[in-house]
UniProtKB/TrEMBL annotation:
GO molecular function: DNA ligase (NAD+) activity
Full protein name: DNA ligase
Gene of this entry: ligA
Described purpose of this protein according to its UniProt entry: DNA ligase that catalyzes the formation of phosphodiester linkages between 5'-phosphoryl and 3'-hydroxyl groups in double-stranded DNA using NAD as a coenzyme and as the energy source for the reaction. It is essential for DNA replication and repair of damaged DNA.
UniProt source species: Phytohabitans maris
Catalytic site positions: 131
Lineage of the species this protein comes from: Bacteria, Bacillati, Actinomycetota, Actinomycetes, Micromonosporales
PROSITE patterns: BRCT, DNA_LIGASE_N1, DNA_LIGASE_N2
């Protein structure tokens, strides 16, 4: 028997999910789910891996069960595909529903027990099919000829992808009999398809596809590409037949008509009499998943007979007679080439595995986290080992262990650094996450680059070359030192004359007027970003109030839970000396407050004073994307990344894509980007009549 290191349990067990402790974390999770679903269904890339998504959805569902009052009206737990599908003009003949998920044998049995209770008798039989990570489509045939192919979309309407889908192997252009039917299944890329598609894409001078699903999605939605990437199709159901058929019989009939089906695939489709047989079939599919020639992330279990399906019925988003048994995180093996040590912006020192490229969960992985040096010892991995790599619980892949019987002779354990790899200073080993004792001072270059960036203090002209020069000359050790630079000092640097130095000093001094939210972003407080920095600044108003806030007071900010509050408080204590130095040099430490009358609300607030949910898509005149989102918050709204039924307003500018179309389909108010820019100007000018006039313009 092979000697293996036990894989580490997932960070989030979706089958035993814990509710979120506060409403802010719940709402933030809902937005993350929606954004991830939109990225998934739109095709270009994955915002998070399946394990993370499933775990997050499970926690959202657990929270809604524990705190029904928090549940949002259009919660992703009630929507097909979490509301992320791209909606088109093709209305489906019947809704294309999603499937609920189960994780493990116990949940599978509980699902089967509920199904039997619904029917009042045992289920007559089950089928077990592979769950393919592709795009669900509906293909319509008239008199045996393929006439229309549409994506799932939001479950009720999808995009017309007929021209591209015609090329999918397994989807016949003409049936062997002149029938008028609708067949549903998955368009995807096999391993061979993906290899060929990558060669075509890179040979055309384009960057490689991120993973097979995005490759299939992009190919379906790009009819004018100069190359024809291969696609495959497997059918899983038929609609529009006169007599209801058992699922197994329907797939056999589809195979007779010329379709490739899940039953005729390498995975097969066992018909099972009991739940015990179902679980055994799921286990067999789990063991075979790496040998099928295409990616599967679970098994689909269905009641086979039409009477059982009719008796069980469906909810608004999923049939009760079927369920998706999700596999554990995809784990692959590859060679660990070497272990490198990285030092983060805040001085945290982390071991990272450099790997031979391997496809894990549909993504090509070349490096993976080893978390910390204690974990590295526990996992017992070394350079040259064949290691297990997975994507579970984190977007970043992780190495979970080594295949010890394949370890090369003469391999030696990794030696952790004795000193900080970046500055040579002492390492604080008192916690699991080692850190350079100099903290942020260790990463001066990195911290300075982040501080001056466009989305932070936006100091134009202060690029990498000049930053390296002033640091090397000992002129700057932290951001506060930037404000001590003068023209003669900078003009003396190589390739920087007096004119350029004067302009640079002007830009540096001008950055002092940036609002508190920009200062917080520039400081790089852990567990915050631009959006959270704006929320903190808006809530507390001044740096003084923020520094004085307790952990409990920090948790009153939308999206700040207990863990984040503790981290932010600790970070601010560490940053206090730097903040004081910045303030001494005149850097603004307050956030502008919109002046409104006691009876007036901000333009993007509801009558009860709560913020409207606003999505900005496309370009807004005079604003960057981040500035557009910040403007939404200044106007009293809450910026969101995806369109849902809860969205109050969608700002649409040049380059807007599917979000605008989805807003129209859902009947959500659309505000042209030019009108939004005018609204912002009118508000900042204190012109309530102009604000009212802009908001009064009827929906076109």
């Amino acid at each position: 028997m092979r000697e293996l290191v036990d894989p580490v349990d997932p960070v989030v067990d979706a089958g035993r999910a814990a509710p979120f402790p506060d409403a802010g974390e719940y709402r933030a999770a809902v937005e993350r789910v929606r954004a991830a679903a939109e990225a998934y269904y739109s095709g270009p890339d994955l915002a998070m891996d399946d394990a993370t998504y499933d775990g997050l959805m499970a926690r959202v569902a657990a929270t809604e069960a524990a705190r029904p009052a928090w549940k949002e009206a259009d919660s992703p737990t009630e929507a097909v595909g979490a509301g992320g599908g791209v909606v088109g003009d093709v209305v489906h003949s019947e809704p294309m529903l999603s499937l609920d998920n189960v994780f493990g044998e116990d949940e599978l049995r509980r699902w089967a027990e509920r199904l039997e209770k619904l029917l009042g008798r045992p289920v007559a039989g089950y089928t077990v099919e592979p769950k393919i990570d592709g795009l669900a489509i509906a293909a319509r045939y008239t008199d045996g000829v393929l006439t229309l192919v549409a994506t799932r979309g939001d479950g009720f309407a999808g995009e017309d992808v007929t021209a591209q889908a015609r090329r999918a192997a397994g989807l016949p252009a003409r049936l062997r009999e002149p029938l008028t039917v609708e067949v549903r299944g998955e368009v995807f890329m096999t391993d061979d398809d993906f290899t060929a598609a990558q060669a075509m894409r890179t040979g055309n001078g384009e960057p490689p596809f991120a993973h097979p699903r995005s490759a299939a999605a992009g190919t379906l939605r790009a009819p004018k590409r100069p190359y024809d990437a291969p696609l495959s199709f497997l059918a899983y159901s038929v609609h529009g037949v006169t007599e209801p058929m058992a699922g197994s019989a329907a797939l056999a009939r589809l195979a007779e008509l010329g379709f490739a089906t899940t039953a005729t695939s390498a995975a097969g489709m066992p018909v099972c009499a009991t739940v015990e047989e179902v679980y055994a079939a799921v286990q067999a599919l789990t063991a075979a998943r790496g040998t099928l020639g295409f990616g599967v992330d679970g098994a689909v279990v269905k009641a086979d007979l039409p009477a059982d399906r009719a008796g069980a019925g469906s909810s608004s988003r999923a049939p009760r007679w079927g369920v998706a048994y999700k596999f554990p995180a995809d784990t692959r093996t590859t060679k660990l080439l070497r272990i490198e040590v990285q030092v983060g912006r805040t001085g945290v020192i982390t071991p990272v595995a450099v790997l031979e490229p391997v496809q894990v969960g549909g993504v090509i992985v070349t490096s993976a986290t080893l978390h910390n040096f204690d974990d590295l010892v526990r996992r017992n991995v070394r350079a040259g080992d064949t290691v297990f790599v997975r994507r579970a619980g984190d977007v970043i892949p992780e190495v979970t262990g080594a295949q010890l019987d394949l370890r090369p002779a003469g391999s030696v354990p990794f030696e952790p650094p004795a000193d900080c790899p970046r500055c040579g200073g002492e390492i604080d080993r008192s916690q699991k996450r080692w850190r350079c004792v100099q903290g942020r001072a260790c990463g001066t270059d990195v911290a300075l680059e982040y501080y001056v960036a466009r989305t932070s203090m936006d100091i134009e002209g202060l690029g990498d070359r000049i930053l390296r020069a002033v640091v090397a000359a000992g002129l700057v050790t932290d951001p506060a030192d930037l404000y001590d630079l003068d023209v003669p000092t900078l003009a003396a640097l190589e390739r920087l004359g007096e004119v350029s130095a004067t302009k640079l000093v002007t830009n540096i001094q001008g950055s002092k007027a940036r609002p508190l939210s920009r200062v917080l972003t520039a400081l790089g407080v852990r567990m915050t970003g631009r959006s959270m920095s704006r929320r903190l600044a808006a809530h507390f108003g001044t740096m003084e109030a923020l520094l004085a806030a307790s952990v409990d007071e920090l948790q009153r900010v939308d999206g700040v839970g207990p863990e984040r509050a503790v981290t932010i408080a600790a970070e601010l204590v560490e940053l206090t000396p730097l903040i004081a130095r910045l303030a001494e040099r005149g850097v603004n430490m307050t956030e502008p407050v919109a002046v409104v009358t006691s009876t007036a609300s901000l333009p993007l607030q509801r009558p009860d004073g709560t913020p409207m949910t606003v999505v900005v898509t496309g370009s807004v005149p005079g604003l960057t994307r981040d500035e557009g989102n910040a403007a939404v918050e200044r106007l009293g709204g809450r910026s969101a990344g995806s369109v849902s039924k809860k969205t109050d307003l969608v700002v649409v500018g040049d380059g807007a894509g599917s979000k605008a179309a989805k807003a129209e389909q859902l009947g959500i108010r659309i505000l042209p980007a030019e009108a939004f820019a005018a609204l912002l100007t009118a508000h900042e000018d204190g012109d309530p009549d102009a604000v009212a006039e802009i908001l009064a313009v009827p929906q076109p």
